[in-house]
Each structure stands twice: as C-alpha cells, then as structure tokens.
Design a protein that fits this description.
Blueprint lengths: L3 H34 L3 H19 L9 H28 L2 H8 L2 H12 L8 H19 L9 H27 L2 H15 L1 H6 L17 H29 L1 H5 L5 H12 L6 H17 L5
Helix pairs in contact: 1-10, 1-12, 2-8, 2-10, 3-7, 3-8, 4-7, 5-7, 6-13, 7-10, 8-10
C-alpha cells in the first residue's frame, strides 16, 4: 500500500511535470519574437543550448565521460533525438504545414512512446487495457483542444512528415532516457544532452552556410535587450531548468507517465494565449481539457 508521504511525493512530481509543460507551452511567444528579429530556428536552438550548457557546466563539472563507451553513445543519441533532430524537424515543419497540423502530430508523441515501450520493454513493462484506453482518451482530448471546433486539416506531406519526425524523436528520447536514468544522475545526463545537441547541429551549418554568421563577431551587434531577454528565457528557463526537471520527472514517475504530460502542452499554450493575447476560451477547450485529465489519470494506474 502506498504511504501518504509517497503519494504526496508523486503528486509533487506531477506538479513539476505540469510546470515544465506549461513553460514549454509558452515558449512559442519568445521563439516567434526571435524569428521575427531575424534569427533562424537553427540559430535559436544553438544559442539557447550553448548558454544552457555553459551554465550547467559551471554548476556540475565533476564527471566528464560516461562509465563505458556504450553509455557515451547513449548520451550522444539523447542529444541527437531530444535536441538537434527534434527542434529542427519541429521548426521546419512550421514552414510547410499549419500550426494545427504540427501540434496534432507532435503532441501525439505519448502514444508512440507507449508503443515503443511496449515493443522494447515488453518483459519489464505491462500495460493494462485501462492504461491504453486512458492514453487514447488523453490523445482525443488533445485533438479536441487543438482543433477547437474547427475540424479542417490542410494536408501537406512534407510538413506533416517533418512534424511526425519530431514526434518520433521525442518518443525515442523518452525511450532512451529509461536506461540512462538508472545509471546516471540528472545533471550529468542533461549536460550531455546539451553538449551532443551542439555537436550534432554542426553538420547543419556545413550545408546551410547562410546561418554561419552566428559564429562571427557580428552576433554581438545583433542583440537588443528585448532579444537577449527572450533568448535567456529560452536558454536558462526553458532549456537548462526545464530539461533538468523533465529528466528528473522521467526518473521518478517513469517515462510513460511523464511523457503523457505532453498532451497538456496545447492547454498551457491556449491559456497563455488567452492571458497575453486575449484569445477566448471555448467550450471545446474545456471539453478537451477534461478528456486529457481523465485520460492521464487512467494511464497513471499501476504503471511499473
């Protein structure tokens, strides 16, 4: 039987997961302002990860390499899937398809994560019908929130494939975090994610020379105080702090339960838009929110 203190502890980690997703749901405003200022998606990713890595390195620098080379490869895979590939595919998808399509596909990540876990960890993780049904209900709630009563999708094969690629990248990142979290602490893993995210973005700059000015002295004359504030928020809060907390949540709640909080991302985005942009809250939003919360509750039942 779960003690009251253990239950409160788990509730606390759920709140942390909600807080992280809420912050990630608000980053579209800060990213959009940086894009309008002239930075490219790759440049934003590089700058925010570089700042986050330097700050985290100053905090935690006792351990540099993983215990064995296989684990170092695992860390590289985490940086590639949860960093470079995820951000590039998601941002590129927005250039070719609608925000609605991108949100629907990327936020369906928990379903794909559950499938991957059932495939690769079927000996250790057993999902009940209630848990599978709960994930489906949460996914339907996310669809209702994103579509918001406007059931019209504009198919764009390239953009939708890129969004699907981002979805798979985050699902694989969650899958790889399971063995990594058992063997290394959260600070080490997060620092490695930032480092290998920066290393694996280098080939992009080889093939896209127009973005290389980020490495020259011109970058110092580009930033205004408002741009610096937005960039520091993305780097310090949305990257360093949120990745640390998210990796901790995965360790404590398990990757499946933690990843299901991604369904909540559109909710926080709409709340943020209603607060700052005065966009209305509709009955569809309320219905979708109830479905997501119900689905997450069901999916949290008895997962190992």
């Amino acid at each position: 039987m779960i003690s009251e203190s253990a239950g409160n502890s788990m509730l606390g980690y759920h709140f942390v997961a909600f807080l992280v997703v809420a912050i990630w749901g608000s980053t579209f405003v800060f990213t959009k302002m940086l894009l309008q200022a002239g930075l490219s998606p790759a440049q934003i990713f590089t700058l925010r990860f570089a700042i986050a890595y330097v700050l985290l390195l100053a905090v935690y620098h006792r351990k540099w390499l993983a215990d064995v080379w296989q684990d170092e490869v695992l860390m590289a895979a985490l940086g590639l899937t949860g960093g470079t590939l995820y951000f590039l595919t998601e941002n590129a998808a927005m250039l070719y398809t609608t925000a609605t399509n991108t949100s629907l596909i990327v936020c369906s990540c928990p379903l794909f994560a559950m499938l991957l876990f059932a495939l690769f960890f079927r000996q250790n993780m057993r999902f009940t019908r209630i848990q599978v049904f709960g994930s489906f209900v949460a996914c339907m709630g996310m669809v209702v929130v994103v579509l918001n009563g406007h059931f019209v999708l504009h198919l764009s094969p390239l953009g939708d494939m890129l969004a699907f690629g981002a979805c798979l990248c985050w699902a694989v990142y969650s899958l790889l975090m399971k063995p990594a979290a058992y063997r290394y602490n959260t600070f080490f893993i997060t620092r490695k994610v930032f480092f290998y995210g920066l290393m694996t973005i280098i080939p992009y700059y080889i093939f896209v020379p127009s973005d290389r000015w980020i490495f020259t002295s011109e970058v110092l004359t580009f930033f205004t105080p408002s741009i610096l504030f937005n960039l520091l928020f993305l780097a310090v809060v949305a990257s360093m702090l949120c990745f640390l907390l998210w990796n901790l949540v995965i360790r404590k709640l398990g990757p499946v339960v933690a990843t299901n909080w991604v369904y909540f991302n559109p909710i926080t985005t709409i709340i943020f838009a209603a607060w700052l942009l005065h966009e209305p809250i509709t009955p569809w939003f309320l219905l979708g929110t109830v479905l997501i919360l119900l689905g997450m509750y069901l999916c949290d039942r008895h997962i190992a």
